[in-house]
Amino acid sequence: MSVRVGILGGTGAVGQRFIQLLDGHPEFELAAITASDDSAGTPYRDAAKWRVDSPIPDDVGDITVRATEPDAVPDDVDLLFSSLPSGVAAEVEPDFAEAGYVISSNSSNARMADDVPLVIPEVNPEHLDVLDVQRDERGWDGALVKNPNCSTIAMVPTLATLDRFGLDRVHVATLQAVSGAGYSGVTSMEIIDNVVPHIGGEESKMETESKKLLGSFDGAEISLHDVDVSASCNRVPTLDGHLENVWAETEEDIEPEDAEDAFRDAPTLDLPSAPDSLIEVFDDPSRPQPRLDRTLGGGMQVAAGGVQSTPSGVQYNCLAHNTIRGAAGASLLNGELLADRGWL
Amino acid sequence: MSVRVGILGGTGAVGQRFIQLLDGHPEFELAAITASDDSAGTPYRDAAKWRVDSPIPDDVGDITVRATEPDAVPDDVDLLFSSLPSGVAAEVEPDFAEAGYVISSNSSNARMADDVPLVIPEVNPEHLDVLDVQRDERGWDGALVKNPNCSTIAMVPTLATLDRFGLDRVHVATLQAVSGAGYSGVTSMEIIDNVVPHIGGEESKMETESKKLLGSFDGAEISLHDVDVSASCNRVPTLDGHLENVWAETEEDIEPEDAEDAFRDAPTLDLPSAPDSLIEVFDDPSRPQPRLDRTLGGGMQVAAGGVQSTPSGVQYNCLAHNTIRGAAGASLLNGELLADRGWL
Amino acid sequence: MSVRVGILGGTGAVGQRFIQLLDGHPEFELAAITASDDSAGTPYRDAAKWRVDSPIPDDVGDITVRATEPDAVPDDVDLLFSSLPSGVAAEVEPDFAEAGYVISSNSSNARMADDVPLVIPEVNPEHLDVLDVQRDERGWDGALVKNPNCSTIAMVPTLATLDRFGLDRVHVATLQAVSGAGYSGVTSMEIIDNVVPHIGGEESKMETESKKLLGSFDGAEISLHDVDVSASCNRVPTLDGHLENVWAETEEDIEPEDAEDAFRDAPTLDLPSAPDSLIEVFDDPSRPQPRLDRTLGGGMQVAAGGVQSTPSGVQYNCLAHNTIRGAAGASLLNGELLADRGWL
Amino acid sequence: MSVRVGILGGTGAVGQRFIQLLDGHPEFELAAITASDDSAGTPYRDAAKWRVDSPIPDDVGDITVRATEPDAVPDDVDLLFSSLPSGVAAEVEPDFAEAGYVISSNSSNARMADDVPLVIPEVNPEHLDVLDVQRDERGWDGALVKNPNCSTIAMVPTLATLDRFGLDRVHVATLQAVSGAGYSGVTSMEIIDNVVPHIGGEESKMETESKKLLGSFDGAEISLHDVDVSASCNRVPTLDGHLENVWAETEEDIEPEDAEDAFRDAPTLDLPSAPDSLIEVFDDPSRPQPRLDRTLGGGMQVAAGGVQSTPSGVQYNCLAHNTIRGAAGASLLNGELLADRGWL
Fold first, then answer.
1. Which ipTM score applies to this complex?
2. Which residue among B188, B237, B238 places its CB closest to the CB of D187?
3. A237 contacts in C (CB within 8 Å)?
């Protein structure tokens, strides 16, 4: 069984990752790519400045890029992945949903909307059912599902497993790769021999999205978790892979082994892009490291290490590939979950 | 008035910074350089693999390197700066002190000893007086004074100014430059396009040294401050400048402006290497940055920025040049304080 | 005696270097800064995104930026430095020259025009006299002088000294810093862990500008040198400093010492920004290196090393700071030469 | 048919690449790993500090490391790959060959010896037959085969295809990755924001090895090619992939297309590790780039681009993965050739 899928905004950095990840996908067949109006009508090969370290799949290079509007996308496409700039996404994603398309979107708009599921499949798959509310309220035939921000995704899988100890308060410092800002987001003059201790809006995304992802869904409404997250976000000179230093305070005392066991017991899903185990745990306190560990599980695994006790909980480091597990792969996995749960 | 000074272990990275900082010093005259036995007897120019970005001062290049033992150093040298490996320092620094030399040391040994002052001149100059106890107990004519670890120095000046609000608990994530590990401490294969989230012993140094620096001295004994510091230390691909994300919890509520005012009001000293103001405060939340701000005040100033309120205090970023304010400059300033207070 | 100077296009990367270099200049007083229309009317402090590693001089921060047109610049400004984008420069520099201003320009337009002197003061100061032809032909009261491209400047001073042996053919491979492309010219995704073996137009600039700089001037006309230069230009992950591998073929045989002597004997000028010696020669074959040697002579010196004989000449490496000796400092020195030779 | 193979010096950077490349090899089965005496007797997992970006193959982690001496290696091992330090290799490789082992070695010793084949399989496979002379003269049952230096391998495949036009003289500037110096060969302080224009012995290796590789073999003796190669070698801040700027002068004139056609027509071999085509040619003058193109053909392909005519030939850029095609993969391919030609 094959699902015909499309990509909204397929020429950018995340769009290119979508194409790389969809190449050879067992269930999804790439049938349409949209981009901005000036690219529409040209072959993908010419429209995209391809920078991924594997060549453009041959059949994809020949696809004619379409305009980003519902009329331009064939009706038999069932699922759309979106990596549109959030301003554009805020305008056109509702149009596509209204036109009947199911959208798995990486764009940052609408993530905190009450009736939009914000999902990491291994963490809160049940939130998907808020789509019933969404369809009801908005009168959509399609649907809009979001994945969280790349820095949030690296941390929340670990936090979710610690919630059994009563998650209370979290401090997190991030060391984020330049690819998170898009291909031209960080200039070389800014970041060679340097660190920038500020990423606009990032701290707030981590603080609010975490509360929603860890929240509960009672069939009608998602309640935010009352964990208090305080983030400090830094851009560092790495290409891919967000590393994070986390201090998690819990109601119960935890030994490092308790936390490591919890990490290792994280749920897994039987979906094509889901890793065999969600969290790889390192004994070596110097791991995980971005360059060595970002491609674990094809870039879909989260890595953790350096677990230590603190007076009020544990501290540890975690890592995820920001443009795979943290972006294109996140949307793809949400798409697989949507297919598996019968939402297409 | 000129003081004749020497450097113990003058060929390494910190030793070279000592030489650079002493060049043209208004009060100190470099009279002796020691190194390991295989360098003894050779001109400094040949003994050191000079890597600082200003040339070796001409007269220094011609100095004959001496063995690192009291007999090899002239008696009329009054003050020794030490950047010996800590194992060596633990052996020979007491010998020099016993032989009558006053040593301002950057080496990590003995920093937490009860009768060894661990000093940042603008923070706890009064701790110097524990030298009376030291001389008493050890029967030394000389003296041994320490400065803290480079990562501690970047943070404690800011914490000291916040203690008026009742400093309670601190979380700190560091983004440390490779020079902190010495010239060969971090290989290029380890750190290009990478971050290493572990620096052996560093977290513990930050946690204990901070308590001593912020502690009180009653004329006989230094009492540790009861602040609880929890550190997470990362090596990043920068050359110089340790950047730190700090969350300081205080008994009293603080607004960002309160913290910024406190930073700006940090004490200053009238010593040759002391900066005009101890802490430079940035409004721009993306500052301080290592490459842009590490040389403020000739590398002797601490920079802070990004101050925000948290439910239990403030969070902010701070930065100091790790081999100047955090190492050679720290010892130099301690030496100036020793001279100023009449300990030579 | 003080000359009032202005900067055309003063907010960009080279413009900022002009301001840094003019701060405290013994002869030049900064009296006007122009920028694009949307910056005109605002204080320089707000118009420029300042990224140089020393603070904006206080009095400069308060200067109100002007539009880039002759009417907007005070008449008592005698000398203008230009770092305009070459397209803009091609339009407005002639207007300023016609209005009577003398312009020392770093922009790449018009460098090869017959009546425009392309000058490195220590190499071909006599070419300045082609300004008589320029004024004659164009009817200008002012004048337009150019300095060569940053990659050309690093090499030509060494080639000029080798011409006594009959310079014949040159192969040169460049390893150029990212600042050469402007602040946003090279993205971090392009260059971290990477090299780009192509810089648009750069090879051709090196090949043609060298022939003009090394050419002779008979009082009426500049004749191009017949040296054949073949360049291969690479962008590497360094911030500042262009390093170049040069093979120079000469009619006469040369020993390495001959070349080194020639380098050391390069002419010097008694101008405020001219270095004491033009070319610093290293014995250590691993020098010069960009990070260690780019600030020699305040960034105005050229460094050379690794000189070896080849069957038909010599090979060696050379280096210059691309935004100081290779750009802002080059124009500044040309301005000093213009003042010294009475062209203002 | 499976050949049992071993690795001499299997714990270092190249040794680790051997293990990665042998994992799942269709013909070779890893049966022994040797290392220095202090590692002998311990499981490979503990002996090696594994830094390759794929995990240690499970069965390899459990292999007990052996001493590097013929007695310690099982007799049924037919082929040994060597990545020993050249000093050690010079001592022990002859012992192994005398004991009957066939050695495909990446170590730099003995590459220019008359009776030792220095081979790139697609370039000079016929040189392998000098092994008859080697066995004759040295009385060995085994054999010793070498592959060239990593920087030589990136260039010689392209030069070999140009020899049809009468290869005359070559200038080459290299931009070499840090991994070429081994894991600890280049410190981060040396190379961040820097280039080092000297690699000890490298230029001479390129100059002499090229002449042997391009030389002819008459059944008894290898004659060196009379091409004159002049190299300038630079270390740049890239992790893997040596990029080279080449100027090749030829007796006949060549158009860029002639050179590109020659590159595309390079011979290929039907061996497991040989790429489908030896040289990938890029139209885009900014390619090849190390980070984007070093893994072409699994790291076994050479890439070329930027071909231009010069007055006496062509200039172009080429690239190869220095620790795969330039080291471990080179030896592996030689091993496959040895097996294919019946030398085992």
1. 0.95
2. B188
3. 188, 192
